[in-house]
Amino acid sequence: MVAGARGLLALLLVVSAPLRLQAGEQGDGCGHIVTYQDSGTMTSKNYPGTYPNHTVCEKTIRVPKGKRLILRLGDLDIESQTCASDYLLFTTNSDQYGPYCGSMPVPKELLLNTNEVTVRFESGSHVSGRGFLLTYASSDHPDLITCLERANHYLKPEYSKFCPAGCRDIAGDISGNLVDGYRDTSVLCKAAIHAGIIADELGGQISVLQLKGISRYEGILANGVLSKDGSLSDKRFLFTSDGCSRSLSLEPDTQIRTTWQWVSEMGEQLHWSPGQAQLQDQDLSWASGDSSKNRKQREWLETDLGEKKKITGIMTTGSTQSNFNFYVKSFVMKFKNSNSKWRTYKGIANNKEKVFQGNSNFRDPVRNNFIPPIVARYVRVVPQTWHQRIALNVELFGCQITQDNDSLVWRKTSPNTVSSTEREDEIITSSIPSEEIPTGINVTTVVIPLVLLALLVAGMGIFAAFRKRKKKGNPYGSAQAQKTDCWKQIKYPFARHQSAEFTISYDNEKEVTQKLDLITSDMAG
Prior knowledge:
The structure is a single chain. This protein is α+β, with helices and mostly antiparallel strands. The chain contains 7 helices and 31 strands. The chain has helices spanning 2-23, 188-195, 421-424, 443-471, 479-482, 485-491, 521-524, and strands at residues 30-35, 39-44, 56-62, 69-77, 87-91, 96-100, 109-111, 116-122, 131-138, 158-163, 176-177, 181-183, 204-212, 216-217, 221-222, 225-226, 230-231, 235-239, 246-247, 255-257, 261-263, 269-271, 286-287, 301-317, 327-336, 343-344, 356-357, 366-387, 391-400, 501-504, 514-517. Strands 15, 16, 19, 20, 23, 24, 25, 26, 27, 28 and 29 form an 11-stranded mixed β-sheet that branches. A hairpin with a 5-residue loop joins strand 21 (261-263) and strand 22 (269-271). The longest helix is centred in the C-terminal third of the chain and has 29 residues, at 443-471. It is globular, with a radius of gyration of 30 Å. Mean pLDDT is 75; it is low at 1-25, 258-265, 269-285, 407-451 and 468-525.
């Protein structure tokens, strides 16, 4: 009797599946989803609000091969008690976990024997329920936490945890700032993003130090997260870091370029020079001479740090003057070193131009961090959108480049290879690879003889072919082949063009072009 009832229920589920999928296609019940190489965050739609009726969310998540997958459920609130129409289910090639719903016991963490799992959330008719919040990571991060953990959940004065990618936009308040610390009621991972310890699209390891609380916590907008002012608490917490976050704007060799002035209604001349663009100055900020929107890509504020430095963050304000309600709402960063071209800072996950969130008023400062850091001498803040007129005060944070912290920057060139200045300045905005070259092998010693041997063999082959073709009366192949650039170089290997100069341009920006003299054929003789 019982078996017959179960069979009937299974038959009804199969028959009604197409109808349920018509009402809710796969994916329309999914909410916030952020995934990276080895961690991520996923929620039901509208979380932490009530999830919608008759929806399906199905997504396969994975970590690198050879790793095991860790799942942590931060929250599960599904109204159904039978899991017939509302449930959360995890499926691998060999196992099934769930379905979970209602008040049934649910494991907070699942360690799977595979690197891949399919998450399926389905809803029928219901009145209430938040749905679910799930975080995941590879087995490299057994100390994974969810986006909902708060500092007061932990008693130890010092501890380290792994935050998954995607916690920035999950509901949860923080109070405080990087300098004074955060109230212990703040959610940890969002506070770490706010402090610039980790990037939201990457996640990462955090090290926390708990201290005695203070009477008041001052909020600030930083890295897209708004912290609130907070009141007295027994405890607060700080993040430990590499210490590369001191002000670079106060150093004596720092220079800021570009100026204009206007006459106020009172007849007073107001100077908006770049020299006033440092955040510590109490006078007028730097402001653009043109408020029209067609100047968007032509106005920037450039800082010369005097030498190549590691830049980890920037703080900006608007005009700071109540009678001049000017501020920049979004901007991009460009950077370069001596004798190299301007490059645009890009996001890690998508490798696209990263647009930073700027100010929302003329007064309050906003901080943004660069993960990975910028390594450059020259930096430009290029406004993208603004209120009324471009106006900026800036403060850059970072440190001198030393042998210790220079290893944190991943370059395309090998650290053992001497290259040109342009290649040396080429920085990749991506995470640092974990693989290292074995120290017992001298790669240069092995590779160079192989390359020389290959070149010798190739040269002998080319020489033999050359003699063979010469005997036939056509030393350079067919007439069509002679028209190609490759054959031109072989025919006239030492020919020089008579032009005495060439021009280096910088991405069509307002940069004075450099003209360099070349040796002409006459001079060479």
